[in-house]
Amino acid sequence: MTRVLINIGVLSTADERRLIRHFTKINGCSEAAFSRHVVRAFAQHHLRSKKKWTVDWGPFTAAVAEAKLAREKWHAARQARLELR
């Protein structure tokens, strides 16, 4: 993700260096260990992304549904305003 943010200009390469330095300091590891961690994390992300996940919102189910409807209403109103232009 950091690479993507650098490529689109959100982060600089200096930011990347600071991130790596922070990670290695906090975790007491080398840059090589950091690189191994990145490779493993992306492999795990790739595997997990293949799964179909569901979320049980429990007692917040009604609030989540209400928020979804509000977002849909907002997007529809926005689209209607854009079409009037």
Describe the SSE topology.
Elements: H1 2-7, H2 13-27, H3 31-49, H4 61-84
Number of domains: 2
Rounded to an integer in angstroms, the radius of gyration calculated over CA atoms is 21 Å
How many distinct helices? 4
Question: Kindly, what is the distance between the CA atoms of the first and last residues, rounded to a whole number of angstroms?
Answer: 36 Å
Structural class: mainly alpha
Tally of strands? 0
**Order of helices and strands, N to C?**
HHHH
Q: Could you list the spans in which at least 5 consecutive residues all have pLDDT below 50? A: none
Mean pLDDT: 93
Content of β-strand: under 5%
Percent of residues in helices comes to over 70%
The best one-word shape is extended
Major beta-sheet overview: none
Please summarize what this structure is.
By secondary structure, the chain is mainly α.
What does this structure look like?
The protein has 85 residues and is mostly helical. It is 75% helix and 0% strand. It has two domains: 1-52, no CATH class; 54-85. It has helices at 2-7, 13-27, 31-49, 61-84. The two termini are 36 Å apart.
Name some characteristics of this structure.
single chain; 85 residues; mainly alpha; 2 domains; 4 helices; 75% helix; 0% strand
